[in-house]
Q: What sequence folds into this?
């Protein structure tokens, strides 16, 4: 059993392997925030807009994603379309999502975050993530 300790906003959270863990994993070395050509970081803006406890939960889930990488499975992550995956964050009755993709095998790029208000993910949210991924690949190839 692997025990992981997180310190988030001076709160210590201890946890064993996540339920969605699938076998052996190679940790991702880096989690990068997508930034626009102007230097804006929409995911950072989204995370900072969340209430403090929801924000802490989101940061914890991002840490899990960084640690377990592509070995992390549902209920933590879900494949959306092509290279795009979603990090699923639930705090109390609030549900949020952060879309991401893996870049060059060892970097996770967080593309777009939103608070989910409907059962089905709105297509415009997926389209925003797709556009940002295309922009990132174009500027970093």
A:
């Amino acid at each position: 059993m692997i025990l992981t300790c997180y310190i988030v906003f001076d709160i210590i959270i201890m946890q064993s392997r996540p339920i969605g863990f699938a076998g052996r994993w190679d940790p991702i070395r880096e989690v990068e925030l997508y930034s626009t050509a102007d230097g804006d970081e929409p995911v950072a803006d989204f995370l900072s807009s969340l209430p403090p406890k929801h924000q802490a939960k989101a940061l914890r889930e991002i840490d899990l994603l960084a640690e377990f990488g592509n070995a992390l499975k549902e209920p933590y992550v879900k494949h959306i379309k092509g290279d795009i995956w979603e990090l699923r964050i639930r705090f109390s009755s609030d549900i949020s999502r952060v879309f991401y993709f893996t870049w060059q095998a060892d970097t996770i790029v967080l593309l777009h975050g939103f608070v989910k208000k409907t059962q089905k993910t709105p297509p415009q949210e997926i389209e925003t993530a797709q556009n940002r991924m295309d922009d990132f690949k174009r500027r970093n190839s």
Observations:
- The chain has three helices and seven strands.
